[in-house]
N-(5'-phosphoribosyl)anthranilate isomerase (Sphingomonas yantingensis), 211 residues
Amino acid sequence: MTTAKICGLSTPDTLDAAIAGGASHVGFVFFAPSPRNLSFDAAAGLAARVPDRVARVGVFVDPADDLLERAIAAGRLDVLQLHKTAPERIAAIRARHCLPVWAAVAVKARADLDAARPLAGLVDRILYDAKTPEGASLPGGMGLRFDWGLLDGFRHPAPWALSGGLDAGNVVEAIRRTGAPIVDVSSGVESAPGVKDATKIAAFLKAVSSA
Ligand SMILES: O=C(O)c1ccccc1N[C@@H]1O[C@H](COP(=O)(O)O)[C@@H](O)[C@H]1O
């Protein structure tokens, strides 16, 4: 059965919608340029609403240790999701903070999957995400999709998840096409960048459970 992570949550009502709809993971973004960036206080308030059966994932872009420490404490994080972070740094973060680590691999062409291979044994999960354009302010969370066929026949070096441009209208096909064990969405359950929509969250989770 495929489970779902709803990422970039920033309000109690949309967090509650994700939990009520059956999300396995909820994502809190700690990256200042993002419209979904959370303060530590906001993260603490949201984290307190999350039951034990749902994992709290902190989303970071090549983070420093002090940011990680404060976010882990405030957001009571269960998982660290790292974007644009070198393998050596991923290993150091995992060793220092003693939490499961997901590493994003940005995909546009088949050759981009080469970046997944050195992650074997270093990460707890690889998150295949669409590569954002050169110079974009965000490495993810832009609602971009990649060609899922690029994953055909690829020997995944670690457990994995699929993200990038998913929504209630395409997630069933994404699961059918790739066999993803976890799907991850942000823009596809928003009414505007950074504004989550409880109705879209419910529709997304219903689609995932029907797949
Ligand atoms: O959502 C963000 O603002 C963000 C910021 C920095 C790194 C990653 C971010 N989001 C991640 O992007 C993917 C896909 O998002 P989308 O559904 O295509 O909008 C997802 O994993 C988010 O965790």
